[in-house]
Each structure stands twice: as structure tokens, then as C-alpha cells.
Amino acid sequence: MATKILTEHINVPGIETFDVYRKQGGYTAVEKALKTMTPDEIVEEVKKAGVRGRGGAGFPMGMKWSFLAKPEGVPRYLVCNADESEPGTFKDHYLMKNLPHLLIEGMIVSSFALGANKSFIYVRGELMYVIRILEKAIAEAEAKGFLGKNILGTGYDLELVVQPGGGAYICGEETALLESLEGKRGNPRNKPPFPAVKGLYQCPTVVNNVESIATTSWIVNNGGDAYAAIGIGRSTGTKLISASGHINKPGVYEIELGVPVEDFIYADEWCGGIRTGHKFKALVAGGSSVPILPANLALTLANGEKRLMSYESLSDGGFATGTMLGSGGFIVFDETSCIVRNTWNFSRFYHHESCGQCSPCREGTGWMEKVLHRIEYGHGHQQDIDLLVDVAKKIEGNTICPLGDAAAWPVASAIRHFRDEFQWHIDNPSEATQPGAVYRGEMALV
Ligand SMILES: NC(=O)c1ccc[n+]([C@@H]2O[C@H](COP(=O)([O-])OP(=O)(O)OC[C@H]3O[C@@H](n4cnc5c(N)ncnc54)[C@H](O)[C@@H]3O)[C@@H](O)[C@H]2O)c1
Ligand SMILES: Cc1cc2nc3c(=O)[nH]c(=O)nc-3n(C[C@H](O)[C@H](O)[C@H](O)COP(=O)(O)O)c2cc1C
Ligand code: SF4
């Protein structure tokens, strides 16, 4: 039976209530942390655990915590990033609606470790019902003495605030989120300074993803070494994967990092295989921002070994043959999918969501959308494929925040691996624009 750190009790009836969560061992980490540990000891356990940020960038959580500046007389904040807007990613939503107390317990333990007395959960604005679930759970925890003034008589105070998000993808970028939380338009700031030095109201702030924060109770209860013993290499612990697309069993799965991609797709325990009667064509492994891979490269590394669900294995081969684990938004495409149409769809999203501060992102996303649209709709020019590659290159690395890279990588990787399919659209416009038409040329389907 696979190790479940976050979702072990997710199917227990009533687990969203304080009483049932407590009966399953909930809030013991708060008791242990506040009554028997110092903040530095908790930070040390999180460091030992090696847990990497589950929002997508994979930055070591303990290291980020230890970078938190501690100037005298200045408040520190913990902000939970629950904006989750990456296409293909829906695991934080799943965790919050089913296990609100797991997140709240993690927020208490983490806030105590960081010396924060006021912490925020910034929730994607469209998820009003989740916001209500969280607010109800916070009120329950407060009534039982786990939040508010003098928690469990330890002298530690914590106010926990749920903030509805601004309704824009960019508000998930941590500095845009902080601007939005301060009541301003969600425009990203230049980094450095990182939020750990200058964050909310210019005070030291840790921003962590929902899933990252939710792991901390288990780490406090079981120790960092026990967490680090799960997973593979520097990809320690478990990861929630949002699985969608042409598979038999879409859903959110908690896997131990290191499972072969092939097993994750085909085993009944997880995706249950490509939908019956179809073949595997392509994979977006970590949310819409990461490079797309053709089926053969998704399953196998250049040296013939199986590709694994881990930070290192997914990125093996760099951008030539690899991708990224990102936020774990695992989107599977079968042979009925048109890569050009999908790339245009992603580009349309990034153009719409660009905040417009940097010219390469604002203009480049617009150009990519426009050129992809004309290729998809039968008006492509012979030079368009190279033009797309050129625009993507000019965006990459030249912007304030990584939304620009996130817009460039899906285009550059789709052309890298599926160039023939783009060319077929340009060469055969009348065939390519028939309803449901898909390129059927030479292609490694699995
Ligand atoms: N979950 C989603 O819905 C979603 C949506 C879009 C993008 N993403 C992910 O976002 C990722 C990019 O995020 P990012 O721009 O925040 O990445 P980043 O690498 O700049 O930062 C990652 C985290 O580490 C911290 N950090 C990095 N270096 C630091 C230092 N020297 N000192 C202190 N803190 C430091 C940052 O403050 C941040 O919290 C992408 O990889 C993508 O997968 C997720
Ligand atoms: C455009 C953009 C959107 C992002 N959206 C989210 C998000 O919705 N949730 C999230 O946790 N991180 C998101 N991130 C990453 C955050 O900036 C940040 O790295 C993360 O919240 C840090 O938490 P972690 O270290 O626990 O992953 C986004 C980044 C970018 C560039
Ligand atoms: S890269 Fe795009 S989204 Fe990010 S700050 Fe620049 S214009 Fe805004």
C-alpha cells in the first residue's frame, strides 16, 4: 500500500469537521510543536525532510524558511498560496475542500516556526465555497483553543485570515499575490528582494503553497528523517498529482515520488491507462507552463531507463528531451489531440493572463496567439514556424516574472517535438481545418 502523508483520512465521513479530524489524530502536531519544540527545531525538521515547494518551482522549503529575515520589532508573515490557476492543476482545491483542518493545522505549526502572529490563506477567488469551508473550519479551531490568543495556554497568538483572490492567474505569482493582498492590482515585483526579506507590507514573509504547508504536521509528528526516507533522491516525500485528459481515471492522486511515469499512467491504482481503444501521443507533466513531451520521451530517458515521477527524472535531458514536475498538473493526450490547437489554446490563455508590465510578455504572447491561430485556421505562412520559435526565444528569460517563460515553453517544445504537425497544417489548410482533423503522419504513438 502506497504511503499517504496527506490523504490517508480523506475518505473518512465528516473529516472536514474539527471533531472527526481530531479523532483521526488531527492537531497533535500543534500540541507537540507549541508545547515541546522551539521554532528553530521545527525549521530544522523541515530542512531535514528536504520537502520542496509544491507550488511548482520546487525550492527547498526549509531553506526558504531559514532565509526569513528577522529584524527587531518588525512583524513576520506566513502567506499560503491557494490561488491555484495553472491549467491542469487542481490538487490544492481538492485538499482544501476535503481536509480544511489539515491546512489549518499546517498553518499553525508553520506560523509558530516562523514567528508569525498573523497569517493569510489567499484562495482563488472563484472558489467561494472553499473559502466558506475554510472560514467555518477556522471558527471551529478557534472555538477549541487552537487559534486566536494564547493557543493551548502556551502564550502563542495567531490570527488566521482567508483572503479571496483577485480572479487572475498572475495573482498566483507570489509577489503579485502580495500586491493583491495589500489591496493593489496584482502586478509582479522584481525579485530579489525575495519575499523572505521584503514581502507583505515590506516585511519578511514566507509564501508557501497549500500542499507544502499541509506536509508540515506530518513532519512535526514523524520527524524530517522519516519524511526524507520516502521518495527518491532529492525528490523526497509524496506529491499530489492532478491527472486529467485522455485517461480512464482522471483525479487527484497522492504518489510517492519516484513512481515510473508508465506505471502512473497505466496502473489501475492511478490513471488506469489511456482511454480504451486509443494510443498515447503526448504528455504535459507539470501544468500548462512546462514543456510538452511526445509519448516515447515521456516514458523513457535517453539512456533507455524508465522516466520517473520526480523533479530530477522529469527534467532529465534538459529542454531537448525533458520537462518539469512543476505543480503536478498531469495532462495526457491521445492520438485524437491536435497539438497545434492545444498550443494555440495555451497561448490564448497566457496572452489573456499577461499583466502587461513587460513588453516581451505583453507583445510576445499576443503574437504567438495570433500566429498559432492563423496556422490552426488554415492561413499559416511558410515562415510562421520559425517566427514562433523566434518570438518564444525573445520572451524567455527577458521578463519580470516567469509567466513569460511559461508562455514560451509550451510553444517552443511543441514545435521542437511536433514540427511536422505544424508544417502539415500550413501545407494542407483545407484538410487541417476539417472538423476533428488531426495529423496522422509519422509519429511515435505508444
Ligand atoms: N500552482 C499553480 O497554479 C502554478 C501556476 C503557475 C505557475 N506555477 C509554478 O510557479 C513556478 C515559478 O514560481 P516562482 O516564480 O515563484 O519561482 P522562484 O524560483 O522564483 O521561487 C520559488 C520560491 O522560492 C523562493 N526563493 C527562491 N530563491 C530564493 C532566495 N534566494 N531567497 C529566498 N527565497 C527564495 C521564492 O520566494 C519562491 O517562494 C513555475 O515553476 C510553475 O510551475 C504554479
Ligand atoms: C504566473 C505564476 C502563477 C503562479 N501561481 C501559483 C499558484 O497558484 N499557487 C502556488 O502555490 N504557486 C504559484 N506560483 C508560484 C509562486 O510564485 C511561488 O513559487 C509559490 O507559491 C511558493 O510556494 P512553494 O515554495 O511552497 O511552492 C505561480 C508562479 C507564477 C510565475
Ligand atoms: S512576464 Fe508577463 S505577467 Fe510577468 S510581469 Fe511581465 S508582463 Fe506581467
Notable characteristics:
globular; binds iron/sulfur cluster; binds flavin mononucleotide; 4Fe-4S; 4-stranded parallel sheet; 5-stranded mixed sheet; 446 residues; Nuo51_FMN-bd; 20 helices
Q: What overall geometry do the principal axes of the alpha carbons give?
A: globular
Structural class: alpha/beta
| Average residue pLDDT | 97
Number of helices: 20
Give the biggest beta sheet.
Answer: 5 strands, mixed
Taking all Cα atoms into account, the compactness measure Rg is 22 Å
What percent strand? Answer: 5-15%
Enumerate the distinct ligands: nicotinamide-adenine-dinucleotide, flavin mononucleotide, iron/sulfur cluster
Widest sheet, order of strands:
8-7-11-9-10
What is the end-to-end distance? 28 Å
Task: Indicate the topology.
Layout: H1 18-23, H2 28-36, H3 39-49, H4 61-66, E1 77-82, H5 91-98, H6 100-114, E2 118-123, H7 128-143, E3 159-164, H8 174-181, E4 205-209, H9 210-214, H10 216-222, H11 224-228, E5 231-232, E6 235-236, E7 238-245, E8 251-256, H12 261-266, E9 280-284, E10 293-294, H13 295-299, H14 311-314, H15 318-321, E11 329-334, H16 339-353, H17 359-376, H18 384-395, H19 403-427, H20 429-432
Helix pairs in contact: 2-6, 2-10, 3-6, 5-6, 16-17, 16-19, 17-18, 17-19, 18-19
The structure holds nicotinamide-adenine-dinucleotide, flavin mononucleotide and iron/sulfur cluster (SF4).
Iron/sulfur cluster (SF4) is lined by residues 170, 188, 354-358, 361-362, 399-401, 403-404.
